[in-house]
Predict the 3D structure of the following.
Amino acid sequence: MGAQAPDFELFNQYGEAVSLASLADAPALLVFFPLAFTPVCEGELAALAQASREGALGGVRVVGLSVDHRYALRDAADRLGVDFDLLSDFWPHGEVAQAYAAFDPVRGHATRRSFLLLPGGEIAAVFEADHERARPVADYAAAIERLGE
């Protein structure tokens, strides 16, 4: 890996700005997902929220990103118990996902692509899954554990 993550600033489900620079002090996990109200995405978000609450992700800051409007992301976060930022890449439509090569132009939404970032924004690992399959939280946990070695 070793490449610098593309810069961005988006608004979370509460209307607060979150940027790459605001994540630079510690490791972060950027999790692009297609749409909040689909079974696979809901399962993934709930599993991430549980893993984060239980400490399975080593305190790494988790950030979800999709093309959903922030109001839809707020509803999803409330329903699923998500306590991390869900960022709206709503407009310009999918611009940040495109910068991360995590956008499906045929379907018009993000792909299932995640990036583990080191402090400062360097990409340490990339995780991918097809449209119909969730990324295993255990894969994130193992990569995060390797950061400490």
In short: The first strand starts at residue 9 and ends at 11. The radius of gyration is 14 Å. Strands lie at 9-11, 17-19, 28-32, 61-66, 85-88, 103-104, 109-110, 112-117, 123-129.
